Amino acid sequence: MIDLDINAFYFHSIILGKDESLEVLDRIFKSGKILSLNKGGYDSKTLRMNYRDEVCLSRRSVSNLSVGAYDLFAKKKLSLIVKGTLPGIYKPSIISERDSFKYVEMGKTDLEGEYRVKDEIPLDYVVGLNLPVGFILDSMFGYKYFFSSSEEFRKMKFVSGKNRLKDVVSYYEELNEIMRKNNIFLPIYDIESNMMIESSLDIEKIKKKI
Q1: 65 and 124 in contact (C-beta within 8 Å)?
Q2: Residue 31's closest CA among 190, 182, 189?
Q3: How many angstroms separate the first and last alpha carbons of the chain?
Q4: For the segment 95-153, what is each residue's pLDDT rounded down to a tens digit?
Q5: What's residue 1's pLDDT?
Q6: pLDDT in tens, 147-181
Q7: Which of 30, 85, 112, 150 is the most buried (most CB within 10 A)?
Q8: For 33-54, what is the mean pLDDT?
């Protein structure tokens, strides 16, 4: 079971496919920081609303009235769990979703629960990783959303539940290998399943719960 008050933390999600997400995590561990695009982070060509010197974060809302940044990203992608005491966090101005195309790289957001910080987040403020096992295994959509880039999503063919489980276990092992290689050891959670993942057996337990 989880021993964290998740509402007290922020999440930095790596919104990429399988291989790219692991590459970015490795880069974060090597640098010792989560970096903005300007500081040398992953140079994605995806359209974004944040400035290039901002790092995006999300926080779980106590209200279920709307779908926010946490619901879209932290619940569904590999995320670093960041202490709520990180200095310099602020909320960007919120604009209507229909106007979002007008504000590319202009520091706005169309999502509730999105936060920003300038330039970088030292790893000293990172307390764990969130791997959304339940979401991935629950459906083919969850599997595709987690493992594919946006370009690959529609092309990805059906994968059986057994093979989805195998791929999640393999990904979990790769996460641990990246940490071992960088001499960094963070606990891995599935926040929504309320589980700490300490072995592949815990992944199987989550599968049985869903």
Answers
A1: no
A2: 182
A3: 16
A4: 655 555 544 555 568 788 899 999 999 999 999 999 999 999 999 999 999 998 777 77
A5: 64
A6: 987 777 777 888 888 999 999 999 999 999 999 99
A7: 112
A8: 75
**Which of 1, 187, 12 is CA-nearest to residue 115?**
12
Question: Is the CB of residue 189 less than 8 Å from the CB of residue 129?
Answer: yes
Order of strands across the sheet that contains 114-118: 114-118, 54-58, 9-13, 79-83, 126-130, 188-190, 195-197
Residues 6+ apart with CB under 8 A from 150: 46
Tell me if residue 62 falls in helix, strand or coil: coil
Element (H, E) at 175: helix 161-181
- How high is the pLDDT of residue 196? 95
Give the pair of three-digit tokens for residue 153.
């999503």
Q: In this structure, are residues 197 and 133 in contact, taking their beta carbons and an 8 Å threshold?
A: yes
Q: Based on the number of CB atoms within 10 Å of its own CB, is 18 exposed (0-12), middle (13-18) or buried (19 or more)?
A: middle
Smallest Cα–Cα separation from 164: which of 152, 178, 147? 147
How do the residues of the chain divide into helix, strand and coil, expressed in percent and rounded to 5? 40, 20, 40
Give the Cα separation of 28 and 185 in Å (integer). 13
Helix (H, G, I), strand (E, B) or coil at 128: strand
Task: Return the number of other C-beta atoms located less than 10 Å from residue 57's C-beta.
Answer: 26
Tokens of residue 160, six digits? 């059986």
Rounded to whole angstroms, the Cα distance separating 144 from 25 reads 20
Q: Please, are residues 165 and 137 in contact by the beta-carbon 8 Å criterion?
A: yes
